[in-house]
Design brief:
Layout lengths: L2 E5 L4 H12 L3 E6 L8 H4 L2 E4 L5 H7 L6 E4 L7 H4 L5 H22 L3 E7 L29 H20 L3 E6 L2 E2 L12 H11 L5 E5 L5 E3 L1 E2 H13 L6 E3 L4 E3 H12 L4 E5 L1 H8 L15 H7 L7 H24 L3
Parallel strand pairs: 1-2, 1-4, 2-3, 4-5, 5-6, 6-11, 7-10, 8-13
Antiparallel strand pairs: 9-12
Protein name: Nucleoside-diphosphate-sugar epimerase
Organism: Flavobacterium endophyticum
InterPro entries: Epimerase_deHydtase, NAD(P)-bd_dom_sf
C-alpha cells in the first residue's frame, strides 16, 4: 500500500483521481482549501485536510515523511470567464506559483519518492493556435513561449520549476499537460465551469423553443477528454519512466458550436444557438468576449510512443454521462427553488 497525497483533491480532477487511487488500496490524504462539492470524504480519501497550500506551514504538515507519491493538482483556475478576462491574473499567478514553490521544496525536504504535476495546454504559444482547423500543440512546439494567458505563463514556469528540482535535487517528477478535462462531479455553474459543463447546463436549463448563448462566433475549436480517461493516463504516466512534459487529452477536435449542438441534442429540446461577441457582448457583460485561442487540439503521438496507451472514448460518450448528471443537478436546484422551506 502506497501513502499518497493528492493536493487539490477537493477539485474536479483531483477528486476523481483520489477516488481511483483509494479504490486501488492506497492510503490517500487530500489537502484542499475547500471540501469536495459532490464526493463525501470517505469516497475519495482516508484523510482530508482543509488548508491553504499557499502557506508553506500547511504544506509542511500535509507532506510528511514516508510519502510515496504526491499528485499536485491544486491551482487557482476556472473556465474562460475566469482565466481570460484579465480580472484574476494576479491571483492566478501568485496563488498557483506559491503552491508549486512550496510543494517542490517540501517534497525534496521530506524525501517524497515521486511527484506528479498537472500542467495545462494553456501554456502552448498563441501563434500556433490561430488556425482553428490546424492548431499545433505538439510538446516540442512550446518554445519560443507565448501563452495566451497569465494562467498559461504560470503553468509554463511551474513546469520548469519541477524540472529544475529534478535536475538539481533528484526530485522524481512526472509532468502532464491537460487538455480540457470534463465529466460529472465538477463545477457546472457560477463562472468557473468549463465549456462542456456550461453547454450541458445551458441546454438543461433552456425551455423548449428558446436559445442558448455561445460566446464568440462558435468556430473556435477544442478537444475534450473525459475525466476517467484522464485519470487512467495520469496513473500510467506515473508508473512509467518518462518525466514529460506530455499531453493528456483527446485528438477529437470539435468547434464550440458543435459542442453546444451536442448538448442540445442530448436535451431532446428544440433549442437554437445564439453566438454573442463584439460590442453586444461588452454591453451585456462589461468586458471583451473571452474566447481564448482560435484552435486547440491535443497531439498524442509522444504519449503513445512513451507510454504505449491511447484514449479511446469518443466525446459523445462522455457528454452523455456529463449531461445526465448536470441535468439532475439543474432539476434538483429547480425543485429546491420552487419549494423553499
Amino acid at each position: 500500500m502506497k501513502k499518497i497525497v493528492v493536493l487539490g483533491g477537493g477539485g474536479f480532477i483531483g477528486g476523481h483521481l483520489a477516488k481511483r487511487l483509494k479504490e486501488e488500496g492506497n492510503f490517500v490524504r487530500i489537502c484542499d482549501i475547500k471540501d469536495h462539492e459532490y464526493f463525501v470524504h470517505d469516497e475519495i480519501c482516508n484523510e482530508f485536510i482543509k488548508g491553504d497550500l499557499t502557506d508553506p506551514v500547511i504544506v509542511s504538515q500535509v507532506i510528511d515523511e514516508n510519502i510515496d507519491e504526491v499528485y499536485q493538482l491544486a491551482a487557482d483556475m476556472g473556465g474562460a470567464g475566469y482565466i481570460f478576462t484579465g480580472n484574476n491574473d494576479a491571483n492566478v499567478m501568485h496563488n498557483s506559483a506559491a503552491i508549486n514553490l512550496n510543494v517542490a521544496k517540501e517534497s525534496v525536504h521530506k524525501g517524497v519518492k515521486k511527484v506528479f504535476y498537472s500542467s495545462s495546454a494553456c501554456m502552448y504559444p498563441e501563434y500556433n493556435q490561430l488556425d482553428p482547423l490546424n492548431p499545433n500543440c505538439e510538446e516540442s512546439s512550446a518554445y519560443p513561449a507565448n501563452p495566451d494567458s497569465e494562467y498559461g505563463w504560470e503553468k509554463l514556469f511551474s513546469e520548469r520549476l519541477f524540472l529544475a528540482f529534478n535536475r538539481n535535487y533528484n526530485l522524481d517528477v512526472r509532468i502532464a499537460r491537460f487538455h480540457n478535462i470534463f465529466g460529472p462531479q465538477g463545477t457546472w455553474k457560477g463562472g468557473k465551469e468549463k465549456a462542456p459543463a456550461a453547454m450541458c447546463r445551458k441546454a438543461a436549463e433552456a425551455k423548449e423553443g428558446s436559445e442558448i448563448e455561445v460566446w464568440g462566433d462558435g468556430q473556435q475549436t477544442r478537444s475534450f477528454l473525459y475525466v476517467d480517461e484522464c485519470v487512467e493516463a495520469v496513473i500510467r504516466l506515473m508508473k512509467s519512466d518518462f518525466l514529460g512534459p506530455v499531453n493528456i487529452g483527446s485528438e477529437e477536435m470539435v468547434s464550440i458550436n458543435e459542442l453546444a449542438q451536442m448538448a442540445i441534442d442530448l436535451s431532446g429540446k428544440d433549442i437554437k444557438i445564439k453566438n454573442i461577441d463584439g460590442q453586444e457582448f461588452i454591453d451585456k457583460y462589461g468586458f471583451k468576449c473571452p474566447t481564448g485561442v482560435r484552435g486547440r487540439n491535443s497531439d498524442n503521438k509522444l504519449y503513445k510512443e512513451k507510454i504505449g496507451w491511447e484514449v479511446s472514448e469518443p466525446l459523445k460518450a462522455g457528454m452523455v454521462k456529463t449531461f445526465s448528471w448536470i441535468n439532475e443537478m439543474v432539476t434538483s436546484v429547480s425543485e429546491i427553488e420552487s419549494n423553499p422551506k
